[in-house]
Write a structure and sequence with these properties.
By secondary structure, the chain is an all-alpha fold. It contains 6 helices and no strands.
């Protein structure tokens, strides 16, 4: 029984470790050290679209690996740094840049955190204002008149019986 399971388990482990080895694999560096340095600098300024808070230089995601390959191909083709970034922005939008430009289409990216904070503070202020208004509106009940107190005594005496 154990011998029958050994082969599938071994195949599973090999497949698992092979996929891990491929995921962490090192990119093919460019022959020119200056071009390789340019590729790394550009890769540090581009966002991994899978991880989102990492540059493609730091990410092990398959898409980041593909983007690093594209950066190297564009550099080998003779593109400048700006042309490489423009190529990727044309394909993926300004989101691919770790530091998006300040323009009309990216205002939401820049101002969303501030707007969310302002709405949250405003909501908390409205909530506490509502609580204070509700507390003020809760008026102490008026004192009972002599007639009302007499009626209550009468009802209580009837209830307790003679």
């Amino acid at each position: 029984m154990l011998r029958r399971l050994a082969a599938p388990i071994a195949a599973l482990f090999l497949a698992l470790f092979a996929s891990l080895a491929l995921a962490i694999g090192v990119d093919e560096p460019l022959a020119d050290p200056a071009a390789e340095q340019r590729a790394r600098e550009i890769s540090r300024s581009l966002r991994c679209l899978v991880c989102q808070n990492q540059s493609i230089e730091d990410s092990n995601a398959a898409l980041a690996r593909d983007l690093r390959r594209i950066v190297r191909e564009r550099i080998e083709a003779g593109d400048s740094d700006g042309q490489v970034r423009a190529y990727l922005v044309a394909r993926y939008g300004d989101w691919v840049l770790l530091n998006p430009p300040f323009k009309a289409t990216t205002y939401l990216l820049w101002f969303a955190p501030i707007l969310l904070l302002m709405f949250a503070i405003g909501g908390v202020m409205l909530y506490y204002r509502h609580l204070r208004a509700r507390a003020r509106s809760e008026v102490e009940p008026a004192a009972l008149s002599a007639e009302e107190r007499g009626r209550i005594k009468e009802l209580l005496s009837e209830r307790t019986g003679p």
